[in-house]
Amino acid sequence: MVQVSNHMPTAELQALDSAHHMHPFTQGAGLRAKGPRVITRAEGCWLTDSEGERILDAMAGLWCVNIGYGRKELADAAARQMQELPYYNTFFQTTHVPAIALAQRIAELAPGDLNHVFFASSGSEANDTNIRLVRTYWDAKGQPDRNVIIARWNGYHGSSVGSGSLGGMKGMHAQGGMPIPDIHHINQPHWWNEGGEMSPEEFGLARARELETAIEQIGPDRVGAFIAEPVQGAGGVIIPPSTYWPEIQRIVDKYGILLIADEVICGFGRTGNWFGSQTMNIRPHIMTIAKGLSSGYQPIGGSVVCDEVAEVIAGVEFNHGYTYSGHPVACAVALENLRILDEEGIVTRVATDTGPYLKEKFESLADHPLVGEARIVGMMGSIALTPDKASRAQFAAEAGTVGYITRERCFANNLIMRHVYDRMIISPPLVISRDEIDTLIERAWKSLDEAHARLKDEGLMQAAPRA
Ligand SMILES: *Cc1c(COP(=O)(O)O)cnc(C)c1O
């Protein structure tokens, strides 16, 4: 048997990885040729790799490590819970203290009458639950045909067949027969790329009104719910124009459909409030949560459900659940995470201290010749790369070419920043300090300079013809 350890040479670890480990959202052959970077440790906002390099993680893992890496309190909470009750289910008329305590705490933090939690182990699972909840709700109310859920192109709701169907990622739909029936997609409020000659405000209204048009076309007696992220994350951190959400809320109210806010990224402080729904001033009936709920220390997610929907669901036997729904260790760790977020004032700091500081620095990246706009809310932001700011031009090269080159420069400069096509995005741990923010911006600027030089050398600073 091979003893795989941290002390192996990087090349050996990479070879074993290539031989046996299949990576998500990756072209395996390409990665095999290049070799993945092996991450061995992390502390605060900093990763260490197998070569001993320290890397600033401006993505908080996958948008999830809100309290930063290396908090011993969470490890202790897990160890305590494992010794007391490592596992029990909540299926057959039993419960346990960690699930009770966490559900109660989430209900306390959640806005309005979102007082009930159905647990899952991920955002994808929670959104699958939401499909079941919505359809079961309308069926129980005697409107079984009201099973259509409207979602958005370029939204991201997870990677299972159900949640991937809600999502609007065409590359995902193309693999494996998605979307499932009765999911309908409308366009996203992505002004920079799609706004044309409209002002952001006009465009926000126009895109919101696509919801009304879709409801009228499908039939108001067929539409059960609308799902969206308060701020799109994986789609490229797209902050909607100010007119967008008020108009969506008006339409949701007018037709009496359920509003699902997918808070998997926005939740737990990311936008400067506990939930993105508070930042965007919307009133969802259901919120999807995961990621920051445990700061990624344990896999846990859930659906936070309002009184009315929970009451109707309580009237039927809901034939749905996961072995690990409300897993006691995950719940205990999430509770400890919420305690730290609250008691250390981390969410408040994002709103009033480090968030505004990051905003000022991040928006200054718009002065870079390669950057068209730089927008941020709380601690999720994005910049648009462009060959011509004035016309908001896209690159002539295939979308993502320039973003990938820029991401590679960031990686080489020990800064984790992702690209979504030709947008660069950040979502750092919420505990990032002012000094670390300065480092982030310095490294981003340097990486942009290097990418810009290379693009000029290779003749890639060419605008695509206007669509
Ligand atoms: C990550 C994400 C999901 C899926 O969560 P998983 O835990 O990866 O299944 C769902 N919705 C949004 C908005 C996300 O960012």
Describe this entry's structure for a reader.
It comes from Mesobacterium hydrothermale. Belongs to the class-III pyridoxal-phosphate-dependent aminotransferase family. InterPro entries: Aminotrans_3, Aminotrans_3_PPA_site, PyrdxlP-dep_Trfase, PyrdxlP-dep_Trfase_major, PyrdxlP-dep_Trfase_small. One of its GO terms (molecular function) is transaminase activity. The protein is of the alpha/beta class and about 475 residues long. It has 2 domains: about 140 residues, Alpha-Beta Complex (Aspartate Aminotransferase, domain 1), CATH 3.90.1150.10; about 270 residues, Aspartate Aminotransferase, domain 2, CATH 3.40.640. It has a 7-stranded mixed β-sheet with strand order 4-10-9-8-7-5-6, sandwiched between helices. It has a 4-stranded mixed β-sheet with strand order 1-2-3-13. A hairpin with a 4-residue loop joins β2 and β3. α16 packs parallel to α18. The radius of gyration is 22 Å and the shape is globular. The N and C termini lie far apart (about 60 Å). The mean pLDDT is about 95. Bound molecules: pyridoxal-5'-phosphate. Pyridoxal-5'-phosphate binds next to α6.
CATH class type of the largest domain: Alpha Beta
Q: How big is the Rg?
A: 22 Å
Arithmetic mean of pLDDT: 97
Query: Based on the structure given, which CATH architecture of the largest domain is correct?
Result: 3-Layer(aba) Sandwich
Shape: globular
**Each distinct ligand:** pyridoxal-5'-phosphate
Structure annotation, total helices: 18
Keywords: Aminotransferase, Pyridoxal phosphate, Transferase
Family: Belongs to the class-III pyridoxal-phosphate-dependent aminotransferase family.
InterPro entries: Aminotrans_3, Aminotrans_3_PPA_site, PyrdxlP-dep_Trfase, PyrdxlP-dep_Trfase_major, PyrdxlP-dep_Trfase_small
Protein name: Aspartate aminotransferase family protein
